[in-house]
Give the backbone structure.
Amino acid sequence: MSRKPPEPAAPQALPGRADRLLRELEWKVIRRLDGLLQGDYRTLMRGSGLDLADLREYQPHDDVRHIDWNVTARLATPHVRVFTEDREMSAWFLLDLSPSIAFGPEGNTKRDILTGFVGVLARLLTRHGNRVGAMLYGGDAVNTILPPRSSRTHVLHLLHGLLTPDAAPRHGKATELHRLLQAGLATLRRRSTVFVVSDFISTPGWEKPLAQLAQRHDVVAVRLLDPLELELPDVGLITLRDAESGEQLQVDTHDAAFRRRFARLAAEREAQLRDGLARAGADTLELSTGDDLTDALLRFMDLRGRRVRPPRAAA
């Protein structure tokens, strides 16, 4: 759907803008999460340490990569390895900033949602002594790599990069998300928690490097979406614009048959995307432009908690 390009911000205003945004996130989101979670953010970085702590029977939502096949074969019951938590791990954000991320309602685009999500998680993690790094992909290549640091100033630096408007919108070339994931594979040597934040509107080929990344790291695929990408409302004549190519097409949404075809094709893409994410073996969080960020983070932490919560002792 057509969308007016954002007005370029004055470069000198961006550092102050990043600070204002982070203060707003700290007040509206992080403060609320503190009250609801009582400071327990351990599930954000769930990686495996190097020391084996225990073996126990496999439970639903356990990571199948932790199954001990020798013990499983000997006892004829699936068992998983339980590791001590590695406090030295870092978190990385692999961020897709390609043109399709600009889609969404004014002031609440997919890029706005990405920026808020990254700002909250980066501040939560650094506030508890963890380090965060980031790789920013603009659609052609990884343009920026921020090495892991653990200060509030570092989070501001990251937000500054996300708030800086692109010098010139790129059109005519499809996003190749596999480039970002391959850059992550080449750069991230030590096991980390990795948040891949994207709408996954890309040429094929991202599934394999995402699966490879998930084999080496604790990967969370954060999928950004807007409801209008799934179903068109009946609002008459509108102009649809492909954010990647820049091509425009005028359509009549009064046409019920057209809306049904659009919804069917969107559902097919959804099924393919979700299948690819599932096969990659990464945790998945969906963030819609209509979501409340705090509620979405609570859903995510609940999922992570259920994946690692030990089984209850038998009565």
In short: Residues 1-13, 48-52, 309-315 have pLDDT under 50 and may be disordered. The chain has two domains: 11-42+89-308, 52-83.
